[in-house]
Amino acid sequence: MLSSLLRPAVCGLSLLLMSTACSGETKPAAQVAIQQAFPQLSVKRPVALTHFGDGSGRVVVASQLGTLYVLSSADDRTEPQTLVDLSDRVIYKDRENEEGFLGLAFHPNYRTNGQMFVYYTTADAEHTSVISRFRVSPNDPNRIDPDSEKEILRIKQPFWNHNGGTIAFGPDGYLYVGLGDGGMANDPMMNGQNLQTLLGSILRIDVDRTSAGRAYSIPEDNPFVGHAPLAREEIWAYGLRNVWRLAFDRQTGMLWAADVGQDTWEEINLITRGGNYGWNLREGRHAFGPGGSAARKDLIEPIWEYHHDVGKSITGGCVYRGRQAPSLNGAYLYADYVTGQVWALRYDHQSKQVVRNEPIPGNTMPVLSFREDEAGEVYFLTDKGTIHRFVETRQ
Ligand SMILES: [Ca+2]
Q1: Contacts of 58 by beta carbon, 8 Å cutoff, 6+ apart
Q2: Which one of 71, 76, 166, 261 has the fewest beta carbons within 10 angstroms of its own beta carbon?
Q3: What is the pLDDT of residue 17?
Q4: Residue 269: is its pLDDT beyond 50?
Q5: For 271-325, what is each residue's pLDDT tens digit?
Q6: Cα-to-centroid distance, 47 and ligand 1 (Å)
């Protein structure tokens, strides 16, 4: 049984799940449960899930090995259809499992331009990330044309791990790209604090326009515009170790990013323009080396961290804006990859404080990724090949 009900045992301890305040009356309590979705789908290393944004409600699930599947909905019980198979150009090794197909995003104007963007590790070069654009097949809305690839950006990685890999369009229409520090322990090349490399950063690029020598252009209000060559103008925020994963809150437009820690601390960040998120001077809120003392007020602290006694590797999720579990509205859902524990975190934007962080029981499988469908329902994907959603009952 994959689902498990979260039963509020004591009034006041489960505010997240109570639709009304505890008043002494017996009122139905909302119970959030984890439920398997896409029950007919079993994908090796399902690493990304998203929707077309075209009103169709269709969902795409991507394997880290490079095959993308399209389904009509989370309750679709027909055989999944292959949207496109890119495994011929993606490299993935079980032994070095941070490479492979890592991200996809449909253009905000997909309905009219049919464009899909992907992030993957290419098989045609060693340790190299590629961001490319594809187009829908002119003959079949459930097919992406594999021959339509246009490479937008290529990033050489020094090692196999810490590739980041989430791509997402912001409410401003620009493409945001999460990149890790390039790998190995301690950020040996000091990429996190180096603005001259794209590594260790979140990029913001305009994929609708080209510029000299580039298949994209740089938005004029990017924070380091005019600072080249001392800083890469693509960078939106930096000081990140391995963003796994990032997501925009569809209601507030805020950008959430979970950054995987090294030895002791996992962290959640709200990303702001030009922000320095501390790596490798800090891990979470703690000095990682001599340069990360509290005196460095320019280093932005995470809004939340947890110790390796709790989990070992964060998998960032999404802010819930769906309808199936209304008591989760506004909660940031995330998990630990190693333990499989899922949490709902509540952040108060006025006081800038996390007000609650509550576990949602019912999963022990490693969580690879989260993402939402067109209706705002949030799913998480496990390395057992399963996909799960959040539902609510009242008793
Ligand atoms: Ca940090």
Answers
A1: 51, 52, 70, 71, 72, 73, 142, 374
A2: 76
A3: 42
A4: yes
A5: 999 999 999 999 999 999 888 888 899 999 999 999 999 999 999 999 999 999 9
A6: 23
Which pair of tokens denotes residue 55?
């009103």
Sketch the domain layout of the chain as residue ranges: 1-37+326-395, 42-169
Q: Where are the alpha helices (DSSP H) in the chain?
A: 110-113
Whether residue 348 contacts residue 303, with contact meaning beta carbons closer than 8 Å, is answered with no
Say if residues 267 and 258 touch (Cβ distance below 8 Å).
yes
Give the number of other Cβ atoms within 10 Å of residue 31's Cβ: 18
Is the whole model's pTM more than 0.90, yes or no?
yes
- pLDDT at position 24 is 47
What is the residue whose two structure tokens read 């030895």?
Answer: 263
Residue 337 CA from chain centroid, whole number: 13
CA of 104 to the centre of ligand 1 (A): 25
Measure the CA–CA gap between 214 and 358, rounded to whole angstroms.
45
At which residue do the structure tokens 């880290």 appear? 64
**Short-list 371, 307, 317, 365, CA closest to 341:** 365
Diameter of the chain measured on Cα atoms: 67
CA of 241 to the centre of ligand 1 (A): 8
Taking a 5 Å cut-off on Cβ, the residues next to ion ligand 1 are 277-278
H/E stretch holding 112 reads helix 110-113
Assign 91 to helix, strand or coil.
Answer: coil
Q: How far is the CA of 264 from the centre of ligand 1 (A)?
A: 12
Write down the number of H helices and E strands in the chain.
1, 26
> Using one digit for the tens of pLDDT, what is the confidence trace for 101-150?
999 999 999 999 999 999 999 999 999 999 999 999 999 999 999 999 99
pLDDT in tens, 8-49: 322 323 334 443 344 445 556 789 999 999 888 889 999 999
Q: Tell me if 367 sits within 8 A of 315, measured CB to CB.
A: yes
Fold of the domain built from segment(s) 42-169: Neuraminidase (2.120.10)
Residue 143: Cβ within 10 Å count:
15
Spatial distance between the Cα atoms of 203 and 185, rounded to a whole number of angstroms: 23
